[in-house]
Amino acid sequence: MFAAYRNIDAVASIYGLQDLQTRPNDRTPAAMKRNLQTSCLALLLLSGIAQAQEIEPRTYSNAPIGVNFLVVGAGYSEGGISFDSAVPLTKAQMKIDLAAVAYARVLDIGGQSAKFDLVVPYALLNGTAEYIGQAVTRDVSGFGDPKLRLSMNFYGAPALTLDKYANYRHDLIIGASLQVSVPVGQYDRDRLVNIGTNRWYVKPEFGISKGWGPWTLEATTSATFFGDNDDFFGGKRREQEPIYTFQGHLVYGFSSGVWCALTAAHLIGGRTTLDGVHGNDLQQSSRVGATLALPVDRQNSIKIYASSGVYMRTGSDFDTIGVAWQYRWGGGL
Q: How many C-beta atoms surround the C-beta of residue 232 within 10 A?
């Protein structure tokens, strides 16, 4: 009978809400437990923003086999989160300073080009919100969950050495990828908001890319399947339904090697369950973005990117800007 009250006290202790008052109809242990679980599900959206914000043009393109890429990037993201009206959490805002190091290599698999990449992120996060009129804050920094991905082209991107690649022309490319997130990032079971997620996820994606001279039109669709977090906020079990993402990219390449891209993306899904209680937190949002890539020399280039939310039902509405430096070597460069 007293377990629900102890859980409420735990939330109050962590967020400085010891004087939190409940409405008269919400004072039963069952009602208080429901409020706590709903708020936990809502607050957790603060820690899983990055994976829903990914926009990446030219994933399905060709490159000479044996080429390696080292990428170092930094960015800044800020915005708000919208919850279902039943959740007593308002004015949720978050600011994130982002950094990442990535490595990629172009491979030959079955006569077609493929790519393996590894990304290790780091973030400094500041989140604020109001829970029934009381301030809720969270400041945390640390490494996020690293991501490994294998991208394979099935048609239209033959595996070519550097000398043969000079005569290659992009027409129609069809490919797919599989990304895995490894749960080794920063995670504190006694806090709701973390950089890491303490769960695996697997993200299969299908993509198609069509070139017309300097123009390229790309379309991708993916589904992110989440493992369960069995140690969420003091030992609770958190489950999440898949998130489905659709992206379209219009790319223009200049003869100098500069290219730019406009992107539109939409995601839906991700409803959560906490200890068997379904959350009212189906995510649905749309974003637009732009990318500009500038070659410096044969081995170095700089990429500048920005994106913004244009529609949000429930989920995140973030503005993001960033820059990345890329160094290439191997494969005859």
A: 24
Burial of 28 (0-12, 13-18, 19+ CB in 10 A): exposed
Q: In what order do the strands lie in the sheet with 272-274?
A: 229-232, 236-240, 272-274, 277-278
Give the position of tokens 């080292």: 70
At 312, which amino acid appears? M
Of 47, 56, 71, 99, residue with least CA distance to 307:
56
Please report where in the chains the tokens 């603060």 appear, as a residue. Answer: 46
The amino acid that residue 83 corresponds to is F
Contact 88, 131 (CB under 8 A): yes
Pick the CATH number of 3-329 from 3.40.630.30, 2.40.128.130, 3.40.50.2300, 3.90.180.10: 2.40.128.130
User: How many residues comprise the chain?
Assistant: 333
Residue-wise pLDDT tens digits, 230-239 = 998 878 899 9
**Helical (H) or strand (E) element with 103:** strand 89-109
> Counting Cβ atoms within 10 Å, is residue 13 exposed (0-12), middle (13-18) or buried (19+)?
exposed
Contacts of 24 (CB under 8 A, 6+ apart): none
- DSSP-derived secondary structure for 214-252: TEEEEEEEEEEEEPPEEEETTTEEEEE--EEEEEEEEEE
Contact 65, 110 (CB under 8 A): no
* Burial classification of residue 315, based on how many CB atoms lie within 10 Å of its CB (0-12 exposed, 13-18 middle, 19 or more buried): buried
What confidence tens digit (pLDDT) does each residue in 85-112 have? 555 667 778 889 999 999 999 999 999 9
d(CA 232, CA 199): 10
